[in-house]
Amino acid sequence: MGGGFMGPKGGGGNGGYPGKLTWSVLISCVLGAMGGLIFGYDIGISGGVTSMPTFLEKFFPSVYRKEESDKSTNQYCKFNSQILTLFTSSLYLAALASSLVASYATRRFGRRISMLVGGLVFMVGAILNASAVNIFMLIFGRILLGFGVGFSAQSVPIYVSEMAPYKHRGALNNVFQLSITIGILIANVVNYFTAKIEGGWGWRVSLGGAAVPAIFISIVAWILPNTPNSMIEKGELQQARDMLRSIRGVSDGEIEAEYNDLVAASEASKQVQHPWKNLRLREYRPQLVMSVLIPALQQLTGINVVMFYAPVLFQSLGFGNNASLFSAVITGLINVIATFVAVFGTDKWGRRKLFIEGGIQMFIFQVAVAILIALKFGTSGKVTELPEWYSIMVVMCICIYVSAFAWSWGPLGWLVPSEIFPLEIRSAAQSITVSVNMFFTFGVAEVFLTMLCGLKYGLFIFFSAFVAIMTVFIYLFLPETKGIPIEEMRVVWKRHWYWKRFIPDQDHQVNGNCV
Questions:
Q1: DSSP assignment, residue 20?
Q2: 234 φ, ψ to 5°?
């Protein structure tokens, strides 16, 4: 049919599928989404340990000597070290590579197996980091952590999107971002207390602590059920029907429409021998553009600069070591609290409204941070004393910026890409999303300290410009995906003023149903 969309009889289409938010699906989605803990813990822990003098003295002595011997050094440049940035950024390069492998594993063996592999590999990396005696062990451990993050980030959003009823998909998928923020907060609190351990070995506790969420995720992945989509892909049709009935909490007859659509989508998926090649087809152009630009722009907000370099950033702004760690705890707490706005508001207000409001708020307060830093540090980066009220103003602006990200680009940057792809390209497309996210995270982490040294307060203007661009992009090109069943997402592109030109006028038929 030209210009419209038709779902299967009995519940698809615009009417949606019947289903309840059952305890089984709630527990499965929440536990599965906790895979974000390992990602969040690492983001939070990295900046904390790199601000600990004993850690710097052991692995980055040149940075340590620079900080200790020259108290008048330019605050913008005191932590500028390529080896130091490699410690932080190496994880994301490894995550990029592993997400490509995870695409095959997720499709071939199921979502929970990829989650299990991610947890186990991350645990080994944490143990290596905690016991590191040289820079090689430290970087190698980081690479293993990256492989774990890549597998988890590739599989968790898909798992939750497939398990969740479409009316609650946004809230449940945003628990993934919530778990990332909880991981960051836990790491900041751990850093604050381990920095006080006498003997200078507190950093080992911080790095080794990553094994705790890794063990938790591994156990969860072992006991979680597979998604109905994954079961159908493996030919387990009756088990898939039973699972769908269980998680939807309705009768066998009421799940018939959704089950038939899943089977039809799986049959269409099996006809696709090369999903990576199919991603380049014109009909998938809207999804491909979003899978690249949304994660790229998410990182170009500058959020990870604030989160994994928070202690170093605050210390560079004149805060003491303990004060910088405590300020990072505050921003981490705000991050967690604000994410609940997305959890409860995404399915109520929609994705677009949160994206746009968050972008405007981030732009305003990034510019405010730049102005505050410019007024006090200028271009020299030298300051003898930072008044308490001024420090509070900087932290407040950063917290308001972080809260905006936490209910917009943070959770929605993972949610929207995971819910827009048809089954036949879903695993490959999610790998694109994760790979792009990790590539830009790696790039930002790799150049941040150098850019801070060179651009000074202008760095925040640099990121705010991207925030302005991405907000306009969302306004013009992202259709609203609230309340659309995941297997029927094609309708939003067909109705969009720009993307409709890429979508064929005729829906293709599978087993008598339009898909």
A1: -
A2: -95, 5
Asked if residues 7 and 14 have their Cβ atoms less than 8 Å apart, the reply is yes
| Predicted structure pTM score | 0.78
Q: If residue 328 lies in a helix (H) or strand (E), which one and from where to where?
A: helix 321-349
* CA–CA gap between residue 195 and residue 198 (Å, rounded): 8
Neighbours of 253 (CB within 10 A): 10
Task: Label the pairing between strands 513-514 and 509-510.
Answer: antiparallel
User: Number of C-alpha atoms within 13 angstroms, CB side, residue 325?
Assistant: 22
In DSSP terms, 513 is beta-bridged to 510
Answer whether 152's CB lies under 8 Å from 38's CB: yes
Taking CA 160 as the corner, what is the angle to CA 472 and CA 149, rounded to the nearest 5 degrees? 80
Separation CA 330–CA 236 (nearest Å): 48
Tens of pLDDT, residues 294-317 = 999 998 998 866 765 565 566 655
Pair 13, 6: CB distance under 8 Å = yes
Q: What is the pLDDT of residue 263?
A: 87
Q: Tell me the percentage of the chain whose pLDDT exceeds 70.
A: 84
Token couple for 373: 């830093």
Nearest alpha carbon to residue 331 among 406, 409, 414, 437? 406
Beta strands in 398-495 (DSSP E): none
- Which residues lie below 8 Å from residue 191, measured CB to CB, with a gap of 6+? 44, 45, 48, 49, 52, 206, 311, 325, 328
DSSP letter, residue 380: T
pLDDT band (50, 70, 90) for residue 489: confident
Largest Cα–Cα distance in the chain?
A: 76
